[in-house]
Design brief:
Layout lengths: L2 H10 L1 H12 L2 H17 L10 H19 L14 H5 L13 H12 L3 H11 L4 H8 L3 H18 L1 H4 L1
Helix pairs in contact: 2-3, 2-4, 3-4, 7-9, 8-9
């Protein structure tokens, strides 16, 4: 793959990668920084990408590893999870919600975020990969976990969220 093709594929995935960065950091500025750092690292590591493999998965692994490294190096983990901006719901969903009154207001979005952030990081990360569209097998490979563990974490997280968010589902 040429450098131009690589760059075009990278640019085409920026929106999806930003959403993933935001799901990891829960902060607009931190997500932008993580996306920029991931893009730079991918460009510098372009020679390591194997053709005919999952490009988006490769980028997500880079992003996840950069995020984990940052968390380990940061003494104050709480700084990544500052209070949410009022536009959290629009940042969380890529398309505006229907005009049928189903959109959550800012307070409900904050409550949903609090519930989701109560899920342990290992489960939240696996669930985030699942939500953005990865298959169980792909998640297992990216996270270096057995497929049964991935399925279990997704099932348990989904069940926990259904119970904790039942007031919002009605």
């Amino acid at each position: 793959m040429s450098a131009i093709e690589f760059s075009e594929r990278l640019v085409a995935l920026q929106k999806d990668m930003w959403r993933f960065a935001y799901s990891l950091t829960a902060d607009y500025d931190d997500a932008c920084d993580l996306l920029q750092e991931t893009s730079l690292k991918a460009l510098m590591s372009m020679h390591m990408f194997t053709e005919n493999t999952n490009f988006k998965g490769w980028l997500c692994i880079i992003m996840r590893n950069l995020f984990i490294t940052h968390v380990r190096q940061t003494e104050h983990h709480a700084s990544l999870f500052e209070p949410l901006p009022d536009d959290f719901s629009s940042a969380l969903w890529s398309e505006p919600l229907a005009d049928d009154g189903s959109a959550f207001d800012a307070n409900e979005s904050r409550e949903i975020y609090k519930v989701f952030s109560s899920v342990p990081m290992e489960e939240r990360l696996v669930f985030s990969y699942f939500v953005i569209g990865y298959k169980y097998r792909e998640i297992a490979e990216m996270m270096h976990l057995p497929m049964g563990t991935v399925k279990s974490r997704i099932f348990n997280t989904r069940r926990r969220l259904q119970i904790l968010l039942r007031d919002f589902i009605d």
